[in-house]
Amino acid sequence: MSSKVETVLYSQLQPWSTVGATPCVEQVAGAPIPTRIGEYFKTPRPHPWRPTLGYENIELSPLPSQPVTNTIVDPCYTPYGMATRPLKFPNLVTGFDRNPAHAARAALYTRYTPFEWTQNNLKNFNESDTNRNYSERLRGEFIRVMRETDEKTLAGQRESGRRLGERITDTTFWRNEVRTELEKLLTESALLQDSRRSIQKAMNDIEGPLHIAQECLYQRENRLGTDLVHDDPEQSLLTEIEIYRNSLDKLKCLFNKMEDQMRNNRAAQHELELDVVSKESALGIDNMCHQLNNFSKGISYYGGIEKYDPTVSTQLTWAENSNSMVQRSQEERRKSSQMRSDVENLVNGVAIEIWDAWSRTNNAMARRAAETLEAKSKLQMHLHKIQQEIFVIEKNIELLKKAIQDKSNPMKVAHTRLEARTHRKQIELCRDIAQDRLVSEVKDLQNSIEYLNMKLQEAEAQHQQLLKSRANLESDLHNKVNTLFIDREKCMGMRRSFPITATIKY
């Protein structure tokens, strides 16, 4: 818990003691402080500037008919001056009327000598003159110091404002330089992104013809026997695929370099963006600081802030940092421009090479398609017959499965009957003719299902043999049909309609 802070108020009082003493400040609230005691006047009262209240003998008059009393004036401090109050005391000392000197010596306080009185007056006069002279010098010194500090403060504020203005000018200059370079880098990155899309589209366009050529080889590799011929279309396809792969390798290599370059551009862009944001923030803070004055709102004390140094750079390193970022961005822009030129040249060179290989393969496939068409017709006739037999055997397989399924409910009935009869009690749990017949029924059903499953397996085995025969025929026919379809229908159709030149050559 925080301790309660007690406010102490003071009233300004005039100095009354020795020369050069600081002004006396009387405490009017809070804890008491020691009372300041003068050199000559010692009093226990809390206000030393007030006069000492003593007792003086004013009159001594003997009363013949009454006991002798002393009349003493009690001076009382009032706002209007000194008032007297007579006090009556019994006759403490007799013979006052006969010896007044004895009465003076018997006073309450010891009297001073005239020499001491004179010296005291002179001392007071000298002390007053000295204090006044010292006060005049202090007042002159105060005025001079106040003027000097005011002039120094104003000069310091003007110098700080001028330095802030210079800093704002420098920051604005580098902010504009970084922002201009950022705009150029963004434009170059956009152009490089377009080139990246172009080379990526070129690779995607090559993937189509490459897939077609590979598919042609894969389909032709499925031929059996004499169909496995290393003919002209196959040689053309191998050459074409090799060209496609080499072209893809070149494009991918350049594409990877372009990816690295784009990452470098993005890194430089990120640095520039952060620098622009930092400089914008710094400009806002410096402008606010430049506009502050002694009458601004929000100004406050921050104790020890001048000893706190959070800076991480100097004027030189700050400028070098901005300059290095701008130079890096310029270097990345130069590399990006060169890479765009390389992409354009490579794509055009690849397009010409691919077109030549494409044309040679098309001519070879057209010649081979005519040779395959005649063999295809004979295989189709045998395949039609085997297909009819497969259809019939599949129908029989379904009938066998239906017959096996029909035995499920009778088997359930027989099992249910046997299970129910097991609940007969005592002597009624008899193995009678009905029990034997139910057991025999279950065995007959199991034999029937087993026999049907055996026949089903034979049918499925025969079906597999028919399927194998059909597969052999289809394989042979598929090689020819596929070769014919790839060479004449699929490949030639796709190659005639594939806009290779319009797609790759930009």
Model description:
With 506 residues, the chain is mainly alpha-helical. Helix content is 69%, strand content 5%. It has seven helices and seven strands; from the N terminus they run βββββββααααααα. It has a three-stranded antiparallel sheet, with no helix packed on it. β5 and β6 (81-83) form a beta hairpin. α4 packs across α6 (433-497) and α5 (408-421) runs antiparallel to α6 (433-497). The protein is elongated. The chain starts with 9 loop residues before the first strand and ends with a helix.
Keywords summarizing the entry:
7 strands; 3-stranded antiparallel β-sheet; 506 residues; 5% strand; single chain; 69% helix; elongated; two-stranded antiparallel sheet; mainly alpha
Topology:
Layout: E1 10-12, E2 25-27, E3 56-59, E4 70-73, E5 76-78, E6 81-83, E7 86-89, H1 100-105, H2 114-221, H3 232-291, H4 315-406, H5 408-421, H6 433-497, H7 500-504
Antiparallel strand pairs: 1-2, 3-4, 4-7, 5-6
